[in-house]
């Protein structure tokens, strides 16, 4: 079983030498149309690249030596499992948006080969057998992928939706058990962040009509974050963050609270934020070959998307008081521009995942 057919864009040999990097636009254009072809090439390269791969599989004994593609026949590419999931999501989004015909045909063929009912059943069984694996980040992206496939405007992709039903069944059970059994959220800026995971699960559950899961996530969000105020944004930005814990939380609450509740909650939560604060300014990456430092490019991209969505929600809540919305909007394009080049650059530690966050931020910018 192999993910190497159709062939990837190039033939990489190490994390620091990706195949055929897609050229970024030379202009400062931040629109999706300018970047879609390059992102499509990156997505295709990633979803067909088997190695290097960080499996994160807890071996059960000396004979437990399965290859990644045997453990994860759908998602054994793009350096690790969660990145493979969200690169498959990016590929499906790009097909719906529109990409060059040659890339469209190749991406469609890869998605049809990977996301089969048989492969997804194996992925669902693995998640059920290892209930803490990829919690909650990988779960969240898988829920997002399931929702995108099920609602896709591309018939060939929407035809894959039935295979995701058992996957979503497992995810609903895992998420419910997790939030029911946890007294506190995880608030840091990396994969285990609870707010980011809950937001993607919530959006996916709504799209898929999983009303019980929507209620579970909404209840957890209110319990974990409903009383928060005066978030200390000045304490943020560890050297490997790719999420702002504060903006991720506010982005979640935007999706949970009615407008009449969100406006007052957000103004109390953002009480300490002012123009020029670090949370609104791009990061500094001194070593673009450092796999931890390049997370900071993702931090810029994720903040750009969150800031735009939060600003939109604030304007909807109170069209007369736009000071905070203007502050967030004013930062969003600078943050987006800061992380874009790395998403189609020369370093695989960046290109195996960043474009997903860039596209998400661009969609927020265009209200897509």
From TrEMBL:
InterPro entries: DUF2891. Residues 1-17 have a biased composition (Low complexity). Residues 1-29 are annotated as: Disordered. It holds the Pfam family DUF2891. It comes from the Bacteria. This is DUF2891 domain-containing protein.
